[in-house]
């Protein structure tokens, strides 16, 4: 009897259970909305706490290790081309869905929508790109400005890559120990993700109400139809082009996709996704860099 092992419930199933329990709690016990919000926000903050301390050293190590390889420039070019092409395609897809198919029509966004008028006229292209370059690294770290931090990480990785091999190895060795420690913290935080999901859903149902949520059904349905096109059409085509087993990859990160789906943010799953991809055998330096 002592050798009998308890069967663990898969994280994806835990998230689905939390989803339904959160909906029920929000509907039947809406008076605890502030507590539900606390649970959701606490989980988001725990994940956010780890993003920059993990991503910064990951990019530094990735650039430093890939820099000396012959395919670095090719990898850099492919990365920027991929993100430009895919982002443009995704933007076009959702603009088409929202404008031509009428998703979101009749949804009252109140006075908040008025503040968006004219916002694009105040954006200058040169200032837009200058904001990518951090004038003060510590301010960027304090503000959590990920793009400027990534730019610094790329340059730092380049600098480390130019060091003598002994100094470079010493720096990378210490940095990888830091990364391993952050991953250990991440493992513990991910265990709390069902609690966070419970809080998200319970708070939304408690404060918004089922009737209003149903009223947004067309908008939500349209949004997730767009996600479906991405997941079932666009990304599989990309996977075929790059000879990646998309089905197996999707299965391996299914629980993280569920977490992103419920939380409404990809940044929440970025740290565990990086770790998962490495475990699946993908090139560590390339994964971290891209």
Automatic annotation (TrEMBL):
GO cellular component terms attached to this protein's record: plasma membrane
Molecular function in Gene Ontology: L-cystine transmembrane transporter activity; symporter activity
Subcellular location: Membrane
Topology of this chain in the membrane: Multi-pass membrane protein
Pfam name, any one: SDF
Predominant location category: membrane
Alphabetic keyword roster: Membrane, Transmembrane, Transmembrane helix, Transport
Ranges annotated as spanning the membrane: 42-68, 80-101, 140-160, 181-201, 221-244, 256-274
PANTHER family: L-CYSTINE TRANSPORTER TCYP, PROTON/GLUTAMATE-ASPARTATE SYMPORTER
Family the entry assigns: Belongs to the dicarboxylate/amino acid:cation symporter (DAACS) (TC 2.A.23) family.
Protein name according to UniProt: L-cystine uptake protein TcyP
């Amino acid at each position: 009897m002592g050798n009998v092992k308890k069967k663990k419930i898969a994280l994806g199933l835990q998230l689905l259970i939390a989803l339904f329990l959160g909906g029920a709690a929000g509907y039947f016990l809406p008076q605890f909305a502030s507590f539900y919000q606390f649970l959701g926000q606490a989980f988001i903050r725990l994940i956010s706490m780890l993003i920059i301390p993990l991503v910064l050293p990951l990019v530094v190590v990735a650039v430093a290790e890939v820099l000396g390889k012959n395919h670095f420039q090719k990898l850099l070019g492919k990365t920027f081309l991929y993100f430009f092409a895919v982002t443009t395609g995704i933007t076009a897809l959702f603009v088409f869905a929202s404008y031509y198919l009428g998703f979101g029509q009749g949804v009252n966004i109140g006075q908040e929508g008025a503040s968006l008028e004219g916002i694009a006229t105040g954006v200058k292209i040169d200032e837009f790109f200058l904001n990518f370059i951090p004038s003060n690294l510590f301010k960027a770290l304090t503000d959590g400005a990920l793009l400027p931090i990534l730019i610094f990480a790329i340059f730092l990785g380049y600098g480390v890559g130019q060091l003598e091999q002994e100094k470079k190895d010493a720096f990378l060795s210490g940095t990888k120990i830091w990364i391993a420690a952050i991953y250990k913290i991440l493992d513990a935080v991910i265990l709390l993700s069902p609690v966070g999901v419970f809080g998200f859903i319970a708070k939304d149902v408690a404060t918004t109400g089922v009737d209003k949520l149903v009223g947004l059904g067309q908008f939500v349905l349209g949004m997730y139809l767009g996600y479906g096109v991405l997941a079932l059409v666009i990304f599989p085509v990309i996977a075929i082009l790059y000879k990646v087993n998309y089905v197996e990859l999707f299965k391996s990160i299914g629980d993280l996709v569920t977490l992103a789906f419920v939380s409404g943010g990809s940044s929440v799953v970025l740290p565990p996704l990086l770790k998962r991809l490495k475990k699946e055998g993908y090139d560590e330096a390339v994964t971290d860099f891209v």
